[in-house]
Amino acid sequence: MKRLHLYIIKRFIGPLIVTLLISLFVLLMQFLWVYLDDLVGKGLEMNIIAEFLIYTLAMLMPMALPLSMLLASIMTFGDMGENNELLAMKAAGISLFRIMKPVIVVSLILSIGAFQFSNRVIPVSYKKLIALMASIRQMRPEIVVKEGVFSNDIDNFSIKVGRKSNDNSMLYDIMIYDHRNDQGNETVTVADSGTMKITSDKRYMVLNLYSGETHADIQTDSRDNSGYPTRTDKFKSQTIYSKLQGMELERKDESIFRNQFRALNNKQLQYFVDSISKQVEISNTEQSLTLAYPAPISVAMSALAHKDLVKNPDIRLHSYVNIDSILQNSVAPVRRQLLESALNNARNNLRSIKLADEMNVANIRMLNRFDTEWHKKYTYSIACLIFFFIGAPLGAIIRKGGLGMPLVVSVLLFIFYWIISTTGEKYVREAASGLWFGVWFSTMIFLPAGVFLTYKAVTDSTVLNVDSYLDFFKKFRFWDKSISDQQT
């Protein structure tokens, strides 16, 4: 039995690794397509690109692992069913559940490992990735000089070339405007040819010019409207140095992003959830205490100032005061004063409530983000186990291996799961749905489906057999035909 278990595990591990690599590659291409504009043309070194890819792959692992579990389980058991291996094992008295048992243990270990990976590795990877992305975004693109177009990528210079050599090593018909003195186009350099290089540290640009002239305006104190005199210098070779700013990668401090919800583990997330919850409660309490209420006491004290309005001036602080009777028995100036005071209090309360409501909504949305991230570390881990219980019985039912039918079924199921999960998380973040219902809704749908499929596959039920449905409808067709024969 141990040999059988090892054999099944080996059959499962191979497709799992292959499908995991494929899933990571597809998700990585999607991620790079979104951030392509931030990466292209920056002249990034290979170690920076490798570092970026490693952090990105780590962030995509929680999403790729459930998909690979689903696809690998369908491929493994589908291939075993196609080759009649499952039939032979069942004929030997081994149930499908016992066949699945070693892979269930592997799936459980992978689910626990996925949770630990999400809780320990992803927060660190996210901080490093977002710090690296912020550093890359601040980099200026590489200097690209196009033929017949002025380029302003170099600080204090505007350069145009007529043509370039095939290997871009030589530039011809060069025109350069020097703006280092902030006096406009007072210095113009024209050269027949030249080369442009950037130092290895990307701090300086070195431009070597050959066979050219430099035309410079000489500014004087003369107010002659005919213009400034011009000086022309001819040269056989000339070298121009220019300091470049923002071309090198300046690392951002990772601690700046340490409080973002994706950069926290579950213990830290729970701390932020408790802190924000207390802040929301304190804010609501303070808001209720700062409202301007039409206190009966203050109304009574105002009325006591006019003894002719109140028959009983002996009013204690805890006594109930009928405001309507006070207004009816008060003179016009006092009534006007009371009404204006109440109206001002109502307007102030309205503004205060609106401001407090906006702050409260922002705090609740932030709280929901931290809460959602806390639960997602569990939902994606449990999804690995759920998708196995969906994929294994489907593979035994479909009995197709390879990447054909299993790939189609896996992608459709995962897209359905992703849409439900993303929609639920969005509703939770916008406070339009409860936390547990929104985040765990996809799990509540797929978990019963996995249990149902596993039960039907283990009991060899014909409920998922297409031929059984065809036979069922054929009976109706035969019944209709028999009725028509009797009528004739």
- Average pLDDT over all residues: 79
Number of helices: 12
Q: Fraction of residues in helices?
A: 55-70%
Q: How many individual domains?
A: 3
Biggest sheet layout: 5 strands, antiparallel
Tally of DSSP β-strands: 5
Q: Using the alpha-carbon principal axes, give the shape.
A: flat
The side-by-side strand order for the widest beta sheet comes to 1-2-3-4-5
| Poorly predicted spans | 295-319
Distance between the termini: 63 Å
What is the CA-atom radius of gyration, in angstroms? Answer: 38 Å
Q: Classify the beta-strand content into a percent band.
A: 5-15%
**Would you tell me the structural class of the helices and strands?**
alpha+beta
- Topology pattern, helix = H, strand = E: HHHHHEEEEEHHHHHHH
